[in-house]
C-alpha cells in the first residue's frame, strides 16, 4: 500500500471508530437505568470488541476499498453488509458468551441501527466533500498516459468528463504525437525516465494496444454465442463489461470479461437450498390441493392431457423437458409452414377458455416447480424458450446465448419488467435478453425475493402481456 493510500485508509478507519464510540455511548445512555454506572469496565470490553470486529468485518467486505471512481451506492452496500454482519456477531456474543448482561437485548438492535445511520451519513458527507474538493482542484492525482491511440484518447476524454474522479492528465508519451493532444505530448517512451523525474506524477497509465489481431474478437464472439466464459491474457477493454474481473494463474493475469455473483459456488448452493425449501413448502401447503383442482378444470374444458411437455434448452445448452399445465387445444400447431415458431397471440384460437385464465395468472407455469425439484430450473432466472424460437434468436440476438450460463427460471427480471408475450416487434427480444443479462450480473438473494414478490403481485392483478 502506498503512503498516501495508507494515510487515507487510517483516516477512514479513525472516522469510523469515532462514530462507533459515539453510537455505542448513545445506545448505552438510552438503555441505562436509574443508578447504573454509565461506563463500566465491561462496557469498555464490549466497545473494544465492537471496534475490532468492525475492522475485521469491514476489511473482509471491502468497506475500505478505493471508491474514488464509483457512485456512493457501492459504498452503501458495503456499509449495509458490514453492519448486518457486525450485528450478527454481537447477537452471538450476547446469546453464547455474555448471557448475564444486565441490560435489554434491544441494545444490539439499537446499536446496529444507530451505527448504520451514522456511518452512512458520515461517509456520504465525506464523499460529497471530497467530490467538491476535487472539482475545485484539490485532492487530485496526477497521471501520465502512455499511448496516444484510440484507447489512450478515450481514457483521456473519460478523465475530462469526470473531473469529480480527481484525476489530472499531466501529459502523453508515445513514439509519435497526436494532433488532438493540445501540446500535452511530452516525448517518446525512451524519454520516460526524464519525464517522470521532471514532472510530479502519481500513476502511469499504459494504453498501448498489445495487438490488432482480429482473431481475438472472433474467438470472443464465437465463444459467447456458445455460452462460454472468456478469459484472456490481455487488456481488452473493448470487450469488457462492468463485471469484468482479474485474477492470477501462476504468473499470468487472467481477465474474465463477464462475471456473475452466481460464479460463486457458495451462492449457487444457497440459492439451491432456498429453492428446495420454498418449493417443498408450496407443495405441502398449496399445490397438494391446487394441482388436482386445475387438472380437473383442464379436463372439463377440453380433451387431452393435463400437462404439456416441451423440450427447451437449459444451463450450458443442455436440453431439458419443461412442464406446464396445458392451456391450448390438443395437437395445436407449434410452427407455421415455414418452420417459424408460432407464438401465442391475443385472442389466439388455440387457447382454451381455462387456458386463457391460467396464462393470464401464470398458473400454467406451476408444474415447472417439478423442474426446480429435479434441478433443471431455478425459481428465478432467464425464461427458457421453445427450441424453434431459441434457434431463431441464437443467431440474431446479441449475447442471447449468455443467458444459458445460469439455470433458466420460472420467472425472471425480464418478466416482472413487462417483457412477456410476443416478440415479433423489432427490439423486443433484445430488450428481454438485456434484462436477463442484468439479472445474471447483479444477482443477489434479495433480488430473487423482489422478483418472486413482483411475480405474485402480477399473478393477482393479471398481466396485460400474458395471453
Topology at a glance:
Elements: H1 3-31, H2 41-60, H3 72-96, H4 106-135, E1 141-146, H5 150-161, E2 167-173, E3 185-187, H6 192-198, E4 203-206, H7 214-225, E5 231-232, E6 245-249, E7 252-256, H8 265-301, E8 307-313, E9 319-325, H9 353-360, H10 368-374, E10 378-380, H11 387-394, E11 409-411, H12 413-416, H13 428-441, H14 445-461
Parallel strand pairs: 1-2, 1-4, 2-3, 10-11
Antiparallel strand pairs: 5-7, 6-7, 8-9
Helix pairs in contact: 1-2, 1-4, 2-3, 3-4
Order of helices and strands: HHHHEHEEHEHEEEHEEHHEHEHHH
Helix percent band: 40-55%
Structural class: alpha/beta
Tell me the β content. Answer: 5-15%
Strand arrangement across the biggest beta sheet: 3-2-1-4
How many angstroms does the end-to-end distance come to?
59 Å
Could you give the count of β-strands?
11
Low-confidence stretches: none
What's the helix count? 14
Work out the radius of gyration.
29 Å
Large-scale geometry:
flat
* Mean pLDDT rating: 79
**Largest pleated sheet:** 4 strands, parallel
What's the number of domains?
A: 4
